[in-house]
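*Target chain*
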Amino acid sequence: MEFKLSDEQQLLADSFTELMESRDWETYFRECDDTRTYPIEWTSALCELGFDRILLPEEYDGYGLDWVTMAAAYEALGRAGGPTYLLYQLPGLESIMREGNQKQRDAVLKYLGTGEQIYNYAMTEPSAGSSWDDMKTTYTRRDGKIYLNGHKTFQTSSMRVPYMIVMARNSEDMSVYTEWFVDMSKHGVTREPLHKLGLRMDSLAELYFDNVELDEDDLFGKEGNAFMRGVQDFDQERWLVALTNYGTAYCAFEDAAKYANQRIQGGKPIAAHQLIQLKFADMIVAITNMRNMLYEIAWKHDNGTLGRGDCSMAKYYCSHAASMVVDNALQVLSGVGIAGEHRVQRFYRDLRVDRVSGGTDEMMILTAGKQALRKYR
């Protein structure tokens, strides 16, 4: 496996690095984090450089590139402190092109290049998280229309997006799970914001659907195919979360390394003390492992050999490894990290959320463990 990027991939990654160096983005990120505001200035600048076109097929005015290129983009942005957790839906436009009808594709593509949040998936309910057996949201056909009723919770991005893809059960046959492409401006839709520990630049909400009237062409994909569609796209989401974890850890490591070489205690930089060196040894091992794992997964995907448990393994490992790195970085930064407004504080909060969002640790363990054992049956 070749780890060297092509000239095209390196140029794209370098363009994102140059963007991150073009202004004091951290002050802007801090303001957005404090006010729980989506950083549209940053995301629109990214999309002007083509971030949302990387995986989009060429027939939809995309670049039609691969996961390795996306990994390089995420690495460049994360290493420079970018909140890449905001970007998960932008690479996912390919899913809409694959599953959606022309009306839905057109609705999404009109936002291409803007950096705006466009859509997300609504699955989780108060009684249905990792298991959907107790999902209570239903759809009912009546007089040529479809009526959606139910309650979704912990829905990321849902205070801002114009569309949500809502999973519901057929009220006449509860074994049938189907997704619907819902215009969130429709009558009967209610959004109630939720506050959270980290990832504050992205919204979180409770969603209520009270006899929301839909048409047959609001069906997303095929009726009864919600599970299969979800399984197909979960891998990409989990891999992107792991990439965010890696980039965040890389940034925290470099911030701490620079500080450790400048901070003098006992007449020498703290980097000269063995206990500090131990922390950096642990950090660089974790960062190296994360990078190797994530690029290998990208290479396997691009060559058609991705395993069912690979992305779950990456999300589980990287969320924990990155948390260790950021915790050590915060310890090295000491008072500067704890008492000031250092970005590693933001990283510390954000990373803890990633062990829950996009699939809990426990579900990642079950998926990765089951797949690891499968070939030895």
